[in-house]
Design a protein that fits this description.
Elements (H helix, E strand, L loop, with lengths): L9 E5 L2 H4 L40 H15 L3 E5 L2 H4 L10 H16 L3 E5 L7 H7 L6 H16 L6 E3 L11 H5 L10 H25 L4 E8 L2 E3 L4 H23 L4 H9 L10 H5 L5 E6 L3 E3 L33 H15 L3 E5 L9 E2 L5 E2 L3 H19 L4 E7 L19 E3 L11 E3 L1 H11 L6
Parallel strand pairs: 1-2, 1-12, 2-3, 3-4, 4-5, 5-7, 6-8, 7-9, 9-12
Antiparallel strand pairs: 10-11, 13-14
Helix pairs in contact: 2-4, 6-8, 12-13
The structure holds 6-O-phosphono-beta-D-glucopyranose.
Amino acid sequence: MNLQFPEGFLWGGAVAANQLEGAYQDDGKGWSTQDVMPHGIKSAPTEVPTDDNMKLIGIDFYHRYKEDIKLFAEMGFKVFRTSIAWSRIFPKGDELEPNEQGLQFYDDLFDECHKYGIEPLVTISHYETPLHLAREYDGWVNRKMVEFYERYVRTIFNRYKNKVKYWLTFNEINSILEFPFMSGGINTPLEKLSKQDLYQAIHHEFIASALAVKIGHEINPDFKIGCMVLSMPIYPLTPHPDDLIKAMQSDHKNMFFADVHSRGYYPGYMKRFFKENGIHIHFEPGDEEILKHTVDFISFSYYMSTCETADPEKQIRGEGNLLGGVPNPYLEASEWGWQIDPQGLRYVMNMFYDRYQKPLFIVENGLGAVDQLVVDGNGEKIVNDDYRINYLQDHLVQVAEAIADGVEVMGYTSWGCIDLVSATSAELKKRYGFIYVDRHDDGSGTLERYRKKSFHWYKEVIESNGQSL
Ligand code: BG6
């Protein structure tokens, strides 16, 4: 098959500040929600940061980023997706003045990227709300968050207006439905959080996101600002019409987020849901107008698909990327139980594009696996990660299929291009990278970096603009 990727396709990799930077209180950084999540979503947050939290040191990217970006450049990256840790810029979140040392760090980081012709793609909020905002304000339930976010956004947009062109407002914004603390800095536990407060919090995020689009375009009309959603196509478990409707309704819960971001208004199916659940979203004067500042592109993560059924006896919830559903009997799964479905990526890309006709950016995709560092024939340390190469290869072929279907795609950043701490389980043994980092869950390791087999494979993919696939 002759795979065609457009000229200027943005090939690269993605990470998030809290999963790799470490230096959790260096240079004036405040604590974030991640600093009190030593086991990811697997247990309740702790009061204060504890030593068993792998993210406090991460892979020490904060001090080693020059070495890492050099390796990304060696692979030929055109783009590098990372996030700004909000609590480096506003340590508590509600200050009026930013922390200059935090700003300087990202200046240096973006300069380092540009040195190699790598374009930064920046997530403004990636699961790392300043902890003070969670504890004092209950996160996005509180309308004051819009003001704090706006101040933060104005600060970074003005500061980096000539260094960053591509921005994402909230990472996987729809994950707030299941993980309000991690995703929305909401301190109230999910079981105590009313639907009213949850959807009001979502409304506040929509307003903040649309304001970011408005302000960003005023500051630099060349900015491209996207939303970021966790995409997971939901298939009916059987052809029974009840299963189809159930799948559609589950899908609506997620599509709602991309719909508002792309169309600028609430869809009818959500109005019905609000009515049936006694939810009244409070719109402040001007909110409807603000929402009309729709995103320039849709970005999304894609790891897996899932199924839905109306049959109560078959509603077994499988493992999965935050919003898992009923397992698909036709698919195999990763070591962490995430079902592997490359064609689901082609499907989801067609679906987004047909729905919005806006360009897409695949900003996360990859395989979390246990890797073995071995010594090869030349005495070099390497990981023979053919399983990762196969996963990425199969998914990229489907990206090419979607492009052939007419879908407009800006780029692809594979998740965790260098090993980092996992979000759901906060482990390091779940590795995604092209670059192996010698650090382990017991805290041991030298933090040395090693090229995996996939490193050389991805380099060739980029060099050939996908022709080598
Ligand atoms: C996405 C997140 O949900 O999936 C990332 O945006 C996360 O932050 C990635 O790391 C993979 O999940 P995990 O739990 O394997 O790290």
